[in-house]
Structures are given as structure tokens and as C-alpha cells.
Amino acid sequence: MAWVVRGEFRKLWIGQLVSASGSAVTTVALPLVAVVTLQASAVEMGALAALTIAPHLVFGLLAGVWVDRWPLRRVLIWTDVGRLLLLGSVPAAAALGWLSIEQLYAVAVLTGVLTLLSDTASQTMIPSLVPREDLMRANSAALLNLNLASTLGPSAAGVLVQVLTAPFAILVDAASYVVSTIAAYLLREPSRAPAPERSEVRVSAGLRMLFGHRMLRPLVVSAGIAAMAGAMQGPLVVLFLIRELDRSPAFVGLSMTMFGAAAVAGTFIAPAWCRRVDLGHSYLSGVFLASLNGVALFTGVTPVILLGQVLAGLGMSLFAVPQRTLRQALAPPHLMGQVTASWRTLVIGGQTVGAAVSGVVATALHIRPTLLIATAGMLAGLLVAACSPLRELRDLPEEAPAGRSMA
């Protein structure tokens, strides 16, 4: 991706790639610290998982307000330094014999808040670092970081935990923030318009922009519904493959690897696909492909299951790149942080609801029907977009006038 990973964007991209890779290790290592080192109970593990997500729901809207008021480069630097210290405290406490589940709770919450701020700031900064015509390819490059990290990170984490033990595997993530901090420090942040009056920077501004814009409104409703339905399916995949179909753990790993590899490939394909079929149809086709995974799992046929994983990974990139690009292209610069944070709050909130509901529905109806319900939910999100102006969207619309939404 040398055609876009250059200039100041290269520094942001490298820093985010390294930190995302380290975070993927901690995603596996932190629960293992709780289970193996601290002998955590099921209740404590549930609390740890919930506290990891909680900052996005509790502070999501506020994060947008803060990011729009603060220098973005400073946000990136201090959030990296904060995560370095927080994660470094885990192996330090383990070495001294002081580690406790309460410390892991605190680390989960505080790193979650800092990650929320960092992710919001980096997404807000991208449109100012690349020309408008390169925005889609820049988002593709940014998503490549996440897909590579989520695909390769868990495998690397398993090796590191085996060699170093779980607490010291987290040192890899802590070290990644050293690199990320240096990259952020070297970054030259483009000048921003003077900060708006405090009355213009408030919690509801991002939501009003999303729901007041004729293009963003169906996009956020569609994405929210699809995210909630997709999250209904996520927690059931391993359970279904192992218990219902009696597949081996190796098969589960293979299916997830194929999903990740397809998602990585999709980030390279997405910009060209958007140009070929247009922006709106790329989003629609991506959601459609991702929705097929539930049906593929339902069949119980091995080749079909693997094909479904590939299509789901590919589809995820095909819809994520255009939706990110549209959001960044249409939000006024002075509201970019709030729009980004509002979007993340709604989508992650939808995923939280979907994941919570999936167990209840699967218990009542069994797993197979729940997989079909999840597919139907994703198709409902697709229908919202297909019946909106998004269906006719070919290229990026004109930039939104600064200071007001386009109703």
C-alpha cells in the first residue's frame, strides 16, 4: 500500500500497526493471567470481559467531545504512554507477587478508556493527513492493521504465553506502545481550525450529525442493526462447531484463520471494488456476503462452513472501508471526533446487546435457529441501506459545510 502509506500518514499507520499487534496479544494474555495465574472464577472472568467493553459504552460520546477539544497528536502520545505504564504494571506486580484480580479490573477499564480516546483521535486525524481522493485507500490501509493484528496476534500470543507465561507476554504489548509513542511524537499534526465554542462541542452533536444527514442516517441504522445481529452469531460459532458438529479445535482454528486471511485480502480489494461497483453497492455487497456465514454454519457441511468464513471475512472489509470513508468525508471537521465516537458507541452498543441476547435465544430455540435469526437480522440491516439514498451513491459526495449538518 505504498501508494497511500506515505508522508505523515505513514507515521500514524506504523504506530497503529505496532500497537494493534501488541493489543492482540493482550486480548489473549490478559484473560489467561486471570485464569492461570489468579485462578479466577467464571463470575470474575465475566466481570473482566464486561469491564473491557464498558468504557466504549460509558465514555464513548464523551470521548468525541474531548478529542474535538484537544490536540490529536497529544492525545495519541499520552494515551500510548498511559497504556505502556498500565500494561507494564501487570508483569511487574506478578514478579513481586502482588498481582490481584482487582488490578486486572483496573487495567482493563483504564486501558479501555485510553484505547477509546486513541482510536477516536487516529480516525479523526486520517482525513487531514491524506488527500480526499486517497481517503478510501487510507481507510483500507488502517483496516489492514486491525485485520492483520486480529489474525496473527492470537497465534503469537499463544506462543508467547507458552514461553514467557501470561503476565510477561503482556510485556510485548507494553513494548509496542514505546514504538507507537515515538511514531506519534514524530508526527506533524496538520493545523486545525480554531476550536469551536464550547456550546458547539457537546455530547449530542455527533448523534445529531449522524441522524440528521440523509446519507449517514441510513448508514448508521443499517450498520447498527447488522452489528447487533452479527454479534448474536459470534459467541455461538465455537460452541456450535465443537458441541453440535463435533469438530476438532484444529478445525475451529482453521475456520477462524480463513476468516482473518479473507479479511486481510479484502482490505486490498475494497478500494478497487468500490471504484468498480460504486460506493453504495460496495457497502451493500459487503453486508450481504457477511450475512451468509450464519446460513453456511447452519448447513453443517465442512466445505460450506469454510466458504462462509471466507465470504464473511471478505464482506467485512468490503462494507467497512466505504462506511468509514463516507463518515469521514461527510462529517464537518470540527465534529469529526464526536461523529466517530458516536458511531463507535452505537455500533459497539449494538454488538453488546447482540452478544447478550444470543445466549438467551440459543437456550430457548437452540443454536441452529439462532444462526438463521442472526442472518435475518443482518439482512434487515442490508434492507435499510438498500431502501435509502445509499443505493444510488456512486462517488464521495461533496464535503459537508462546516458547522452544520445536512438534513
UniProtKB/TrEMBL annotation:
SUPFAM superfamilies: MFS general substrate transporter. The keyword Cytoplasm does not apply. Pfam families: MFS_3. The chain crosses the membrane at residues 12-35, 47-68, 75-98, 167-187, 219-242, 248-270, 282-298, 371-390. It is found in: Cell membrane. Its main location: membrane. InterPro entries: MFS_trans_sf, TM_effector. Keywords: Cell membrane, Membrane, Transmembrane, Transmembrane helix, Transport. PANTHER family: INTEGRAL MEMBRANE EFFLUX PROTEIN-RELATED (PTHR23513), MAJOR FACILITATOR SUPERFAMILY ASSOCIATED DOMAIN-CONTAINING PROTEIN (PTHR23513:SF6). This is MFS transporter.
